[in-house]
Amino acid sequence: MRSYFIAGNWKMHKTVGESVALATELVAKLAGAGEKVMIAPAFTALQAVAAVVKGSNVLLGAQNMGPEEQGAHTGEVSVLMLKDLGVSHVILGHSERRHGYGEDDALVNRKVRLALKHGLEPILCVGETLGERESGRLEAVVGAQTREGLAGVTAAELAKVTIAYEPVWAIGTGKTATPDDADAVHAFIRKVLASLYGDAAAKGVCIQYGGSVKSENAAELMARPNIDGALVGGASLKAESFVPIVRFR
Ligand code: PEP
User: Fold this and answer.
1) Is 172 close to ligand 1, i.e. is its CB under 6 Å away?
2) By CB distance 3.0 to 4.6 Å, which of 10, 26, 87, 208 could disulfide with 229?
3) pLDDT tens digits for 12-35?
4) Which ligand 1 atom is nearest residue 96's CA?
């Protein structure tokens, strides 16, 4: 049976205590869930949440990381620090980083390669703005983000990469791409991956959809052939909304 990868991005929400409380509830309520599950708390809560999820089926992710191993980079958090805490996955190139903090494809690619070098599994986020979609540039934008984000990544490393397709206009807005629309973009991303790594490798890549995923639309999205999971923002902040997404079937 196909297995899905559902990840929760808690963004800049929750104190350490609140994070521990939610993680504790999720570990209890997601025990035995058939899907791969990850939560990405804020950096400040990673250590405490790591202790909660240890030994459970809930994986620990970070929301970002710096592009260097260590050094004079005030305010950055390094791959080595994340590994040290037991983090296994890292979200990179989220649209809030690209559009709010000026991260470009070259920077995102440096982070992707550094994560892979140290055995951290990246979730590479790609997605177009409404303006890019409406001016017919969706494929050019998403294709470039995929190709440039993966520059220098080997076929063996690709097996550790998840791509998250997150149309910027659907993030936190309540607007969701229709399942058919999303699936068409996922198929396009898979075509780009096939052109870089071949059909078999491309088929094996997990492509998550992100953008106002909730329990009401999760099953319909996940039923599409190219949608292999979800990256969930707002609905991942409460067990009552996240658990039904993970247990969508
Ligand atoms: C996200 O930030 O990755 C996201 C998909 O957010 P939301 O689910 O709130 O749209």
Assistant:
1) yes
2) 208
3) 999 999 999 999 999 999 999 999
4) 2
